[in-house]
Amino acid sequence: MGVRIRSRHERADAELPEEIALRGKTLYVFEGELSGGIADIAIYENGSTKPTRTLTDGNVQYPSGLAVDKAGNVFVGYQGPSFTSGIGEFVKGEGSMKVLNSSILPLALAIDGDGNLLVDAAVSGSKSTIQIYPPGKTSPSKSIDNLPWFYQFSLTADGKHFYAGDAGYNATSYQYYTYPAGKLVYSYAVPGAASGVAGIAASPSLAVGKW
What we know:
Blueprint: E1 15-23, E2 26-33, E3 40-44, E4 53-56, E5 62-68, E6 74-79, E7 85-90, E8 98-101, E9 106-111, E10 117-122, E11 127-133, E12 142-148, E13 150-155, E14 161-166, E15 173-178, E16 184-189
Antiparallel strand pairs: 1-2, 2-3, 3-4, 5-6, 6-7, 7-8, 9-10, 10-11, 11-12, 13-14, 14-15, 15-16
């Protein structure tokens, strides 16, 4: 994959927060560097307003997805030097990154209620597929195909649906899908959106919104 796609909010300062995740009182912020240096995950534990520690790896240059499971395992989607890309894991949020797959271009990550890692990966054109990795596995057990590119997606509390921000060219909408079937329920055009819906989250409530 010879393209860098994660440049949607570039600015002049060195650290660029691209992705966030929460686990209890701990905030994880996946930060890139506009200089092209190594990205890091800044960890703010127990409500701290300053990073208490960081996770880094030489392969991780541009953030391309972040998810943390209940056990504290930190999963990252990344793009690296010389157009490399893949997904990796910091087991228990510590140590060196373990590469799970180095042959895909990840767009967004999530964890479902069963602890499966969900990876939205780019395929041909502006299409993507969500690959579903069972806990402890380095290859997907199944996939949800023929989806648009997503900047981010988020499962509802009941685990039966997910919301997704469309990252396709000239996209200005977010969608609502069934899970794990991946059937589109509706698409909502965001007023005033320029190109792509960059972030999205589902309420903890079981109630599903409709527009």
